[in-house]
Design goal:
The protein is mainly alpha-helical and 63 residues long. It has helices spanning 16-21, 24-34, 36-61. The longest helix has 26 residues, at 36-61. The protein is elongated, with a radius of gyration of 20 Å.
């Protein structure tokens, strides 16, 4: 394979499994299975976002 300016040649794939792996959610879950720290960070972020959304919902209901 000939390389131009140090960049590797990209191979194209028509495999449906490759298309599934390119999805952001699938990549996140795959990374979370390998990293406890990332899993904790995602859980804390989801809880914080949910709490903030609930807070805004309650504040909107008070007016």
């Amino acid at each position: 394979m000939v390389q131009k300016r140090g960049k590797p040649q990209l191979k194209e794939s028509d495999d449906n499994l490759d298309l599934l792996r390119m999805q952001t959610e699938v990549a996140l879950i795959d990374s979370m299975t390998k990293s406890k720290t990332l899993t904790i960070m995602v859980i804390v972020s989801v809880l914080a976002f949910s709490g903030f959304a609930y807070f805004l919902y309650r504040m909107a209901g008070m007016q």
